[in-house]
């Protein structure tokens, strides 16, 4: 997992003898770093239409992983390109279906790289304005971690502790959104019971 340098780490390297906290954590953690003075652990929610690609499809994919391609929203692209790191945890969300909700957990397993579908004229994600020497679109690879019970959108909306979750914001249609550590822990522990 990508380790971020903390102020306390910098002080220690400058000869400061104060006790320092260092962040060493497994890929899947229930720690609440926001409450411990440590930078938040990156968590994400990524949406996929299950008739296109479901959590079961991810589990059955070669190596149990796939490139998260076809994102054509600049903000979602920027999350992948600029913020996601190997080891980040992901709620895999089924969208645009009769029962939308979180269907499982995945993790980021690659650095961002150019989305090849932008150059493929036969792809529904072809972008004629994108150039090979200056591509617009990027993707990361995600790997299956586990399938969970479906935590439906209605159930998420009914939890006061999740009222600030970006997924639940009025008008939010982003296919990729950050998830706070407290939101992640509440969903994983209280709703999924894992």
CATH architecture: Roll
Q: Enumerate the strands of the largest sheet in spatial order, edge to edge or round the barrel.
A: 2-7-4-3-1-8
Total helical elements = 5
User: CATH topology, anyone?
Assistant: ph1033 like fold
Q: What would you call the shape? A: globular
In brief:
With 194 residues, the chain is an alpha+beta fold. It is 20% helix and 22% strand. It is globular.
Q: Could you walk me through the main structural features you see in this protein, from its secondary elements to its overall organization?
A:
The protein is built from five helices and eight strands; from the N terminus they run αβαβαβββββαβα. It is globular and about 45 Å long. The chain has a single domain (38-191), classed as Roll (ph1033 like fold), CATH 3.10.590. Residues 1-38 have low confidence and may be disordered. It is an alpha+beta fold. The chain has helices spanning 7-13, 55-60, 74-83, 153-157, 181-191, and strands spanning 43-48, 65-67, 89-94, 101-108, 113-114, 138-139, 141-152, 176-179.
Architecture blueprint of SSEs:
Elements: H1 7-13, E1 43-48, H2 55-60, E2 65-67, H3 74-83, E3 89-94, E4 101-108, E5 113-114, E6 138-139, E7 141-152, H4 153-157, E8 176-179, H5 181-191
Parallel strand pairs: 1-3
Antiparallel strand pairs: 1-8, 2-7, 3-4, 4-7, 5-6
């Amino acid at each position: 997992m990508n380790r971020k340098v903390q102020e306390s780490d910098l002080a220690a390297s400058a000869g400061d003898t104060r006790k320092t906290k260092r962040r060493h954590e497994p890929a899947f953690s229930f720690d609440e770093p926001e409450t411990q003075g440590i930078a938040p652990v990156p968590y994400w929610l990524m949406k996929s239409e299950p008739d296109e690609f479901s959590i079961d499809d991810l589990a059955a994919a070669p190596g149990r992983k796939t490139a998260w391609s076809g994102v054509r929203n600049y903000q979602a692209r920027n999350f992948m390109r600029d913020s996601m790191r190997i080891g980040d945890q992901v709620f895999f969300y089924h969208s645009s279906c009769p029962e939308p909700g979180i269907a499982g957990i995945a993790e980021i397993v690659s650095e961002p790289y150019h989305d090849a579908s932008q150059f493929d004229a036969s792809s529904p994600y072809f972008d004629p304005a994108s150039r090979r020497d200056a591509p617009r679109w990027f993707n990361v690879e995600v790997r299956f971690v586990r399938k969970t019970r479906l935590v439906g959108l209605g159930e998420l909306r009914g939890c006061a502790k999740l009222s600030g979750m970006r997924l639940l914001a009025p008008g939010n249609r982003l296919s990729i959104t950050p998830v706070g550590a407290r939101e992640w822990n509440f969903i994983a522990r209280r709703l999924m019971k894992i």
